[in-house]
Amino acid sequence: MERGRSRERHSDQSRDAGTATAEFAVVMPAIVLLVVLLTGAAAVGFSQLRAFDAARSAAREIARGEPQTAVVAEARKHAGTSSKVTVRADGGYSVVTVTIRLPDAIFFLDTVDAAATARYEGDRGGSS
């Protein structure tokens, strides 16, 4: 009898051989897709943070009365040289918009942008 049981166990094990490989082959594409999506989302998030930081820095430069070339240089220092920086005046305020182009691998979004507004104080005159 024990011999029969041994053969049964052996045949059960041989039927299960390769099952883990097949399950892994089915799950692997989903895992790869998840990693790609998380990496893309992280890249978008970091680019958005860079754009906000660059716009805020440029707005501070405007508030201090710096020339537009210095404002654009400050924004590009934070956002990267390939970024697009626009500065427009709106009454007593200036609006800085920074646009960063995303890599082509992120197919669902082309660019991220951020804007910051600052009141132009100009030269405050007098020494402090």
Care to count the β-strands? 3
- Largest sheet entry: 3 strands, antiparallel
Order of helices and strands: HHHEEE
Largest beta sheet: what is the strand line-up? 1-2-3
Write structural notes for this entry:
It contains three helices and three strands, in the order H-H-H-E-E-E. It has helices spanning 2-16, 19-63, 68-79; strands at residues 84-90, 93-101, 111-119. The longest helix is centred in the N-terminal third of the chain and has 45 residues, at 19-63. It has a three-stranded antiparallel β-sheet, with helices on one face. With 128 residues, it is an alpha+beta fold. Strand 1 and strand 2 (93-101) form a beta hairpin. The chain has one domain (2-119). The protein is rod-shaped, with a radius of gyration of 29 Å.
Keywords:
3-stranded antiparallel sheet, alpha+beta, 128 residues, 56% helix, 3 strands
Brief characterization of the structure:
It contains three helices and three strands; from the N terminus they run H-H-H-E-E-E.
Which secondary structure elements does this structure contain, and how are they paired or packed?
Blueprint: H1 2-16, H2 19-63, H3 68-79, E1 84-90, E2 93-101, E3 111-119
Antiparallel strand pairs: 1-2, 2-3
Helix pairs in contact: 2-3
